[in-house]
């Protein structure tokens, strides 16, 4: 669910001894950095009291896809959440998040930036994802995930746009 919430700009409301605050879902989970033992920005005794989704018109054309090893319950190898608005064959709006490729849901902001205003074609989707994922550094046994993420995100965007995948 975190991947879809990240794509749709959700926020979480937190409450604790220090008061109330609001954090973007994309900022809730930390990258490991110098404290790999700390997963989130939650402070001691702080609770999530609400999750808020803004009323984004783009969410009307959205999709979530989970790729996994087997049909029964399994964690995603890669997941993609996307929302897309196409006008006159061009990308008028896009939100894209990836799961299973980082320590936290990954908002693909570089790909979004590259796609906005450009042609809504499978080739453009693929190129933007290739650029987004170019800095990715795979671990020993998961290099396949980079290509899997690119292809899955490309297929989801193509589906949403009506382009042939």
Key descriptive features of the protein:
165 residues, alpha+beta, Enolase-like, domain 1, 2 domains, three-stranded antiparallel sheet, 5 helices, 28% helix, FAD-bd_PCMH-like_sf, oxidoreductase activity, CO_DH_flav_C
Supply the CATH class of the largest domain: Alpha Beta
CATH arch. level architecture of the largest domain: 2-Layer Sandwich
**CATH topology description of the largest domain:** Enolase-like, domain 1
Give me the strand/helix succession.
HEEHEEEEEHHH
Question: CATH homologous superfamily name of the largest domain?
Answer: CO dehydrogenase flavoprotein, C-terminal domain
* Helix amount: 25-40%
Give the distance, in angstroms, between the N- and C-terminal Cα atoms: 25 Å
Task: Domain count, please report it.
Answer: 2
Please give the radius of gyration in angstroms: 17 Å
GO molecular function: flavin adenine dinucleotide binding; oxidoreductase activity
InterPro entries: CO_DH_flav_C (IPR005107), CO_DH_flav_C_dom_sf (IPR036683), Diverse_Substr_Oxidored (IPR051312), FAD-bd_PCMH-like_sf (IPR036318), FAD-bd_PCMH_sub2 (IPR016169), Mopterin_DH_FAD-bd (IPR002346)
Pfam families: CO_deh_flav_C, FAD_binding_5
Domain CO dehydrogenase flavoprotein C-terminal: 62-160
């Amino acid at each position: 669910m975190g991947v879809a919430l990240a794509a749709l700009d959700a926020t979480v409301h937190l409450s604790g001894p220090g008061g109330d605050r609001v954090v973007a879902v994309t900022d809730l989970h930390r990258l490991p950095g110098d404290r790999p033992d700390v997963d989130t920005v939650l402070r001691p005794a702080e609770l999530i009291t609400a999750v808020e989704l803004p009323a984004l018109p783009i969410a009307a054309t959205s999709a979530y896809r989970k790729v996994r090893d087997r049909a029964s319950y399994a964690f995603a190898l890669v997941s993609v959440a996307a929302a897309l608005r196409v006008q006159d064959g061009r990308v008028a709006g896009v939100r894209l998040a990836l799961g299973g490729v980082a320590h936290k849901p990954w908002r693909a902001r570089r790909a979004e930036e590259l796609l906005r205003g450009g042609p809504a074609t499978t080739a453009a989707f693929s190129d933007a994802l290739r650029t987004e994922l170019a800095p990715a550094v795979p671990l020993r046994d998961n290099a396949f995930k980079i290509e899997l993420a690119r292809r899955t995100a490309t297929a989801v965007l193509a589906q949403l746009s009506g382009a042939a995948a």
